[in-house]
Fold these 4 entries.
Entry 1:
Amino acid sequence: MSRNIHSIAFFGLLTACGGAHQGTYEVGAAAEGTDSSAAMAEADGHWQARGDAAELQAALTGYEAVVAADPTNRVALERLVRGYYFLGDGHNTEDADKLASWNTAINWGKQCMGLNADFVAQLDKGE
């Protein structure tokens, strides 16, 4: 039960403090000739053991490399959002480290949301 309360409090704080996360939802283009399938498979292997902090960090590093090569990779972006949230919630013990991980999750989430043309169009209209 306390984990649910913690998650609700986290999202409430994010909503209340939304001004700290203003910015763009821009997404770059994939580099030509990019094949990130091997890097994705390696990161996925680490992701399976994400209950271990070192394995989670290895997965996040791998997904970041995938996104660096292909900023449109939705799965890697989604894993970065979930992974950094989990790093803060499940592995970090200091409040400052938790907040840093959650802020990183938010920033990856923005890039992921930037892939949705309808979402970006609504932002451009000021909605």
Entry 2:
Amino acid sequence: MTTCSSKELADSLGVTVARVSQLKTQGRFDGCFTIQRNKIFWDLEAATDMYNEFGPIGASNTRKKTEDLDIPSFNESKAKSEHFRAELARLDLETKEQELVEASQVEREAFTSARAVRDALNNIPDRVSSQIGAESDPVVIHKTLSDEIRKALETLTNA
């Protein structure tokens, strides 16, 4: 067991003394040091093993090497970029020519049309109840109701 100071341990690990103290506070070096009269004596081998076993906090051990990354060539990247720029320009043109519309606009107009049809259907009884109440001929009642329903549904087809 080789003992050393915090400064010597920090130099050995390639970190600052403050980082060694921070790792000690986090419990990363439990069992690797002793305290005697306000001085910390480190077991150099045990502390180095603990540091190397878990690696520095915040560092990812799954980082890929640069040569393992699938980076496209400059020409491929430029071609993709131009392709997507052309697609955006096409979408913009179709929107301006009103071949494409925003989904929110379609939803608003569909809601407005559905509400108009609902209101027209709900108003049928108020409009025809007196006519139907006075009528005894089923053919006339049927024709009156059919006409009113057709008028209400025309609102949907005209929207």
Entry 3:
Amino acid sequence: KGPIERNLIGCLCYDPTDALFAVEQAGVTAATFADPRNRHAFLVAREIVHGGKHQLDEHTLAAALHERGFENADAYCREVFERGQNLTAIPTYAKLLKLSELRREMKQIAAELEAQADDPHAEIEAIRAHAESRLMGLAIDRRTVSWSDACRTRATMWTEARGRTVAGGPGVIGVPFVADGLNRLLGGARRGRVTVVAAPEKGGKTIWWGNEAIGQAQQGIRVAAWCGEMTQDEIGGREAARLAGLSSFALDTGCVRDTELANVTAMLDEISGLPITMSDDPMDIDELCSWLRRVSAKDKAEIAYIDHLDLIDGRGNDYERVSNNIKRLRELALQINMPVVCMHQLSRAYQKENRSPDQRDLRDSGKITHNGYSVSVFYQDTYGSTHDESKIVWNVFLNRGGPTGICLFHRRFDTQSMPECTREEKESWMRLKGWKTGDE
């Protein structure tokens, strides 16, 4: 490792401007160097280049090292300048150094675990949680993003969104939903953000996210899902029945023809090959976050669905538990730069008052509106003097930096589906409710 580290410093000295840019883009920092002398020389060389030096000869570097108490600086610089003069080798050197740094961190983790295991007072669960947290940290790319990188990322995102809009699309800047109405309101599921979707008990939460997960996976989007309410085979059966246009209840009771059963079986085979990673294991918030980190690092998941916040195990009363869960998931979404869509349940207060639900009816809401980037509720239209029970109303009442509004879906619980209403159907429904449409 020592010669490779010195070769990289030599490349930096040979062509300071281009080499330093390439080195920093590769993620090499002072901590990457194992040898303290090489680490010291790298810091000094980088300081000189950042100071405006476009040329860095052997004597300039040696003098700077000597001023900082570096022993045998002349001999060290002579060796460095004899070696590293191949700029094309920088990516290879950087990769080898990063791998070496990773091995050092793994050895450090092993030493920490050994010390904890020898402690008779240490709890096994605490040791395991510490090990998992450290190892998952290594599995995630933790590169430092500069201000200029952040600005370029934002410019690229807006350029892509503009291109989609010109091409006739909704201009989605996040992971797109299947429903175009949600994309127009929310811009898709925003990366690094938490989207909260609340609905009444048995109101169709699992139906909606199951439809979305399958639709997104069919478009090539890698999906992760944790289902605390239903098992994987139940969700798979529902979605296969929906795609076949059949009732999952009829399938469960065997009231189908042989041809229909064969069609559903073919649908199950088709969706089993989709890029979906799902778990129905009971988890607390620590285990769930660790699982999502693994899925992000190993399976490259692009969006995660959590069904639902109330079912994640944790300490404290319901209010404290839900508040802690949403806060931890928000932090995780930022760390792994992935959108997290959380299902949540509404309280029943609005049913007693015979009114449509709103923000007040989030059960044990805690910090939901504080930590959620967008919060929506959806419900069957059974309230008010004029209503249409065949419709599901989706109300986006919190959307940071974006519009709020209503989307409308059909209620087809026989086939476990919620297809989006057309614009004409939505305008007809709004006239039924006595609301102004976009044309009025």
Entry 4:
Amino acid sequence: MNQLLLALGILLTGGLGALLAGRHAKLATFCGAGSAVLASLLGLAASGPVLFSGTALHLILPWQVPAGNFALQIDRLSAFFLVPIFALSLLCAIYGSEYLKDTATTRR
């Protein structure tokens, strides 16, 4: 479960880094696409074994709200949807980085 949360954190941080890179096309591409590739690989590493083994991962954190705890769980059904999402994100990040290399010289 920690790998999945780390993947989401890397994806968010990389997106913010790409946004802050602004007009520096190579740095923005590296931050955005690089973090998407790394996050997708970590997400696949977290959700793939759950899909094939059937062993659920869960995280329960105490939370001071009336409903109780903050709980996250990856079971076989959610892993069934996460694996294609992360695989497609990986392929899109790789393609997108190559696409952005061609358009970096035409930006104003």
